[in-house]
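Try it yourself: sequence plus coproporphyrin III, in.
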Amino acid sequence: MSEALSPAPDSPTADPLAPYDAVVLVSFGGPDGPDDVLPFLRRVTAGRGIPDERLAEVGEHYALFGGRSPINARTDELLTALRSELAGRGSALPVVLGNRNWHPLLDDVLPALARDGHRRVLAVTTSAYPSWSSCRQYRENLAAAAGDALIVERVRNYATHPGFVAANVAAVRRALAGIATPPEATRLLFVTHSIPDAMARAAGPQPRPAEGGYVAWHRAVAGAVAAEAAPGVGWDLAYCSRSGPPQQPWLEPDINDQLAKLAADGVRAVVVAPIGFVSDHMEVVYDLDHEAAATADDLGLEFARAATAGTDPAFVAALADIALERAALARGEAVEPAVIEGAEAGRVVCPESCCVNLRHPGTPAI
Ligand SMILES: CC1=C(CCC(=O)O)c2cc3nc(cc4[nH]c(cc5[nH]c(cc1n2)c(C)c5CCC(=O)O)c(CCC(=O)O)c4C)C(CCC(=O)O)=C3C
Ligand SMILES: [Fe+2]
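Structure, out:
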């Protein structure tokens, strides 16, 4: 490692993120305009067996928003916030953006870091939970983009970090404050991306609960947010954005079905909290703000959508905490990971059995 880039960890001027010499914020990426939509969707779904009708349908969701996902603008805001938070903690490392599925692509950004002399990079992902889709696929894409030129390591899954929970607590409180219906007729509906049942069962390290780590983590986060933000209000966990062939079982209930059930049970208002996503993107603005809001309207339910963590200072501070924690571990220091009571802190190094890729087992991952 070049000394100019990264002083020895025990020197007084050592960067708090040493031994890393750069940070990459890793996001999903989304289309920036109508011409990007099809190439983006092809890239995301290559070899996935997603039916053509589903792709056409998803293309229409983007068309409704001018062919542009809000994800890139939200990720840029997070990048700016994370840069200033890490600088405020005394780090001078560059913090760059690399997307899995749209420009700037990890496939370009990581080789460029290597050409600039970087050797050991810390990846901070915009996905907070274990599962192949939300964790290991990121690790696979990072390994493919890094090649042999760079060592890339990533932060742990962080949804159970108190800072991520605090951001969601604040968002649920704000949404509830706008609801006129009394609490006893109001329901909190936590939402995340549906994934195939088989992927859910394989999520997280062994030993796993029967439902798998993805669902267990969401329940833990939902329970903690509900207990703090709305102790008198009942809650459920529901799912959005199902794709894949209809005969393949995915996590249920779908949010729209759950809204119908709640209305039939006498619930009159819902606060929808997308705890599965760290920022607003197409799933949030289409599946929740557009589709689920219309379903609620048809059912006569008062509806409010809680904000995603976004750039909430508690969330940005949590990302900095886990980055610094990861660096301390890389230096061989003991670390006590911050985690909400009764929940699991993510593994920093995933065992081979973690979040297995059921379609292509053994795909290299960082
Ligand atoms: C768990 C999870 C997250 C949360 C964790 C994380 O944030 O990573 C997430 C996020 C996102 N997913 C996104 C977009 C898409 N996901 C798709 C397809 C799929 N997602 C899956 C899972 C997840 N996805 C799965 C199991 C599939 C089936 C195909 C496969 O097995 O891989 C498809 C294909 C069409 C369709 O089927 O919908 C698209 C276009 C965008 C960007 C949106 C924008 O542009 O604003 C984001 C943030
Ligand atoms: Fe997705």
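One thing you can check immediately is this: The chain has two domains: 22-158+311-330, 162-305.
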